[in-house]
Amino acid sequence: MIDDFIKQLERQGKVIKTQKAYRNSWTRFTEWLAKENPHPTPLGGLPDPQMATQLDVANFKRYAVRHYKPNTVNLTMTHLNVIFRWLMQKGVIPDNPVEHIDRVPTPQSSPKWLTGAEQNSLVRTVRKYGNVREMAMVMLMMQAGLRVQELCDLRLKDITISERKGKAVVYNGKHGKYREVPLNVDIRRCLTKYLESRSKESEYLFDSQRNDKVCVRAVQSQMERYRKLTGIDHLTCHSLRHTFGHELALRKTPLDVIARLMGHMKNDGTPNLAMTVRYTLPSEEDLARAVEELSWT
């Protein structure tokens, strides 16, 4: 049964990682169910997980809460809900036993971002081991909040630079959203140096040795290299984007402005503040520092 469901995910275009996550959630549940019901059913064999009841799912949730992190439990329950809903739609089962099971409440966690010292360490490392091209990539993600795919999609005509101002136009952001991001003086200076050094004719801002357009994986590999060189474990393309959002929040920038700069917009064009407010949440370091200040020594 689960193989048929995974094939359905594949037809829907879900990536391998997502397919594996669903399979892992189903395995987690079925293995627990088999251990809880070791005796054969009246007709012989182990209980059929497809026919699990709401009580089975509730008992599994109680078990999972004791053995897994809350986010893992909630993700598993979400996957099970989708799987059982699919079974119901196919007429295999009469109802969805997961539908009315509450999720585990969890505090909203803040994204991973770079501190001021970590940002400085990254810039020093790129200056020492990298080049102006890689510095331009870092600056566009860290000080303009571009997603890595948006960075790769940037064309020369999407960048406007003058002595006093500049902007990057994202024509096809996440979910196809359009936005314009102003470029500060540091980015403009860095991009000017990079553009002067370009030798390959390409419509895209960042090309590669083999192609006119750099790929996402290549940029991610570069950031992985700098993660190892700097020792900043949470350094990724996306943590650079999160750094942009957090730095704006630290400077008391209104949430609707941050939302617009980050591309957090609803389908009706209004700011999605629920996505943006997380940049105002305390980090793990903030929480640790607050408790440490209570120390008597």
UniProtKB/TrEMBL annotation:
Domain Core-binding (CB): 1-88
A single MF term (Gene Ontology): DNA binding
Keywords, sorted A to Z: DNA integration, DNA recombination, DNA-binding
Family annotation (PROSITE patterns): CB, TYR_RECOMBINASE
Span of domain Tyr recombinase: 109-292
Annotated Pfam families: Phage_int_SAM_4, Phage_integrase
Assigned protein family: Belongs to the 'phage' integrase family.
Reported function: Site-specific tyrosine recombinase, which acts by catalyzing the cutting and rejoining of the recombining DNA molecules.
Protein's UniProt name: Tyrosine recombinase XerC
